[in-house]
TrEMBL record:
It comes from the Bacteria. This is Galactose mutarotase. One of its GO terms (biological process) is carbohydrate metabolic process. PANTHER family: APOSPORY-ASSOCIATED PROTEIN C-RELATED (PTHR11122), GLUCOSE-6-PHOSPHATE 1-EPIMERASE (PTHR11122:SF13). GO terms for molecular function: carbohydrate binding; isomerase activity.
Length: 284
């Protein structure tokens, strides 16, 4: 059995985690947003990852599991006002662009990625924080549990989400079940019928559904299924496609776009407290 966590150089620089019992594999790039770039479960590569685009550091990453913090989506004018002062906070926050720390969990069941506030983050988001994300491949599933700590002396508002990209054979032969009947179409910022949005996966969609239970992504070509098993409060679901890429983003968020401004599902941590949010992806 190979070493549990090793540094690799090919096909790109990353850390490789191999589960000591199942042999399931993760690839992690802590320097680039703490991103998990591969999840191999059995013989199946579950995550989509555009290596060619990744090789150009000037471009945003398309693939893996980007982390959204301290906001999901965008704010009006990219501005967050705290105590009357405007702070520039770009779409989806800064966590996906910063270097994270990586370590093996004590029981070797997975890895812990951690991100702490810096002078740069304080300029955009004036709160002292620590984010600790534990990623565990279990039997036929991936569990992700994230604890956000407020180390500030004032209440800290935030949203948290994940933006995973999943491989599919053909967008025209891909289905999603378990979503709420109505959704928010992000492309028009308007209420829409979810079934209508799902019929347009091959054309490109971006929509958010309120909690309605677990959501299953079904690949009718391969027969593969992937189920997002939510845990409150990270139980909003965003679906995003970007044709011609053969992938679907199935994203758990705690709050919708502009949550920190509207107050809609805004999470607030009191000084010295913490909150854990979690989700699970099961394959079959």
């Amino acid at each position: 059995m190979p070493m549990t966590l090793t540094q690799q150089t090919a096909p790109y620089a990353h850390w490789e985690y191999v589960h000591p019992e199942t042999g399931d594999r993760l690839r992690i790039i802590p320097e680039r947003g703490g991103i998990v770039s591969e999840w191999r479960c059995g013989e199946r590569e579950v995550l989509y990852f555009d290596q060619e685009r990744y090789a150009d550091p000037a471009k945003s990453i398309r693939g893996g599991i980007p982390v959204l913090f301290p906001i999901c989506g965008n704010l009006p004018g990219d501005l967050l006002q705290v105590k009357g002062v405007d702070h520039t906070l770009k779409q989806h926050g800064f966590a996906r662009n910063l270097p994270w720390q990586l370590q093996l969990l004590d029981d070797q069941s997975g890895v812990r990625l951690s991100l702490s506030s810096t002078d740069d983050t304080l300029a955009a988001y004036p709160f002292v924080f620590v984010v600790e994300m534990e990623v565990r491949p279990v039997a036929m599933a991936l569990e992700i549990s994230t604890t956000i700590h407020n180390r500030s002396d004032q209440p800290m508002p935030f949203s948290f989400g994940l933006h995973p990209y999943f491989n599919v054979s053909d967008l025209a032969q891909t289905r999603l079940t378990g979503l709420a009947e109505r959704c928010m179409n992000h492309l028009e910022m308007a209420d829409a019928a979810t079934d209508e949005q799902l019929s347009r996966l091959p054309e490109g969609v971006d929509f958010l559904c309120r909690p309605a239970g677990d959501v299953t992504l079904i690949d009718d070509v391969s027969g593969a299924q992937l189920q997002l098993q939510h845990q409150e409060p990270m139980d909003l679901t965003v679906v995003w496609t970007e044709p011609p890429r053969k992938m679907v983003c199935l994203e758990p968020w705690t709050g919708p776009r502009q949550s920190l401004v509207s107050g809609d599902r805004k999470l607030v941590l009191e000084p010295g407290t913490q909150q854990t949010v979690a989700c699970r992806y099961a394959v079959s």
